[in-house]
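Bug #77: duplicate submission created two jobs. Keeping one. Sequence:
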Amino acid sequence: PPTVELAKAEQKTGIKLTVEARDGVIRGNVVGADGHAAPDAWVSVHVDRGKDFDFEDFDPEGAKPVLTNADGKFVVDHLKRGTYKVVVDGPRGSSRGEKSGVKTGDTVTIELTTLGTLSGHVTQRGAPATVYDLACKGPVGMIDRRITAADGSYTLEHLAPGSYACSVEADQGTARGSVDVASGSASLDLSLVPWAQVTGTVVSVLSGQPVAGVVAIVGGFENGRGMADVLAGKAPTTDATGRFRIDHIAAGSGSISLVPATGGFDQLAKKDFTASEGQLVDLGAIKVVPPRNGDAGTFGLVAVPKDGKLAVMSVAPGGPADKAGITTADVITQLDGHDVGGIGAEPAAALLSSGRIAAGAQVTLTLERGATVPLTAAKW
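Kept job's structure:
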């Protein structure tokens, strides 16, 4: 909508407001798979989002669903003029049909397709899994169920025909499978395989000392479940020895992202792995720039990687580096006696970055001109 700005005490007239009319109408006929009229079917219309859907195009008011009459006909009115998707649910939810790209003023015919049923059993080593989480992704989205059954069985009803990729998670293990569901019944039995485990030790890239309080996320930030565990405080976290262990890992390739437990989502490190069924994968020592502990600090300089060293690009007047005599002509070769090349130029730069370090942090820099300069970070 256009914006109207008013100065102090200004009076503005002549503002024209245009109200979009809701006089659009979509008419149609609904028939069953047998070609006969389908009475008492629910018809709803939704803004046709298409591939280039913009959330601003979403119509939160929409139109109320209507029932088809005895002849299978329907009329949906009071619509904004535009393009819609028409969705029809048959009586008792046993069938479904839809048509996209329907414009106001159109008359359409929609044929109902009988919905399918998917059933099966989940077992581990031949014994039924009595409690598990089942997720199946199909043509109309994700279906999630917590299943509790003494014989390990499940049944999903009223499924749109199409391909379904299903996964199961239980305390005993995990399983995956795919199946095509047509009109009628389909079956998919799944056998659990033991979870793999991933462990590792997080250490400081500079000192090699263990770093506690680092969170390990399976799959990184794109893993919604992993991020939910982080926000809920349930994600695996390194202990005083820097050690972490993640128990429920599906067999295959993946990655572990390490982030601070104290807040924020700066990725400290990422480590790829491949695990087989029931395997314990040890990633060994993972070097990170330790997350800040305390108020943000600064050494009063900006250094960037250059030929395996760090070139000082700027020095803040009156800051710790300036007071110690560091200038933009200096090149840093060592931090606390460790060669920049051995640490890694990027991690070394991060170890000196304002905000990444805590106020009061100390470091001794060795400069290419031969000087050794101790610095203490000031509050940023």
